[in-house]
Amino acid sequence: LFFDWAGLTQRTDVTFPSEKPYFNCYAPVKILEECATIEDVIKLYEEYNEPVFTRAHIMWVDKNGNSIIVEWGEHDLAIIRKEGNFQLMTNFYITDPNLGGRYPCWRYNTADQMLQNNNVTIDYFSSILDAVHLEGDYPTQYSNIYDLQNKVVYVYHSHNYNNAIKFNLIDELNKGYHSFELPSLFTDVKSFPNESKI
What we know:
Low-confidence stretches: 191-198
Shape: globular
Radius of gyration: 17 Å
Number of strands: 7
Largest sheet: 4 strands, antiparallel
Number of helices: 6
Strand order of the largest sheet: 1-2-3-4
Helix content: 10-25%
Strand content: 15-25%
Mean pLDDT: 90
């Protein structure tokens, strides 16, 4: 499984079902430990309340190419399944863009337009990441491409989309628990002063 969050405008109108417990841990860790498919992920989210959905949504993808976006809709949990070949997520509510602003999103529209040619290569996806990266006060600090069927991940630092670190997921998982400070993997890319340790 792969997941990633996107921040949304904070909402104060969300009321979670009182009959459901809250995750008592970081929900994605529990999901990664217990689930293998999108259907497994959906079942787990239906059992628990996740307070982060007042300010973010999350995309999950499995190795079969199935994906969902999970967010809080107008009154309840919303599961948005992939339709077609691709599913996109940026920083607005998919169920109703009027819920939190940030729409239309030029990054979403640019990626959507570029994906219309169905050119599924690592180089082409890298060019999409380049086209939608952010600069200024809140710059894109890293990007990644997950190829779950081939079990590899390509990681890009800062705005350098010509230089990727390629990770073999099987090799990494066989090493057991470990982590990296992302900037340390790239010696020729400028770091930003406020960059977090990733």
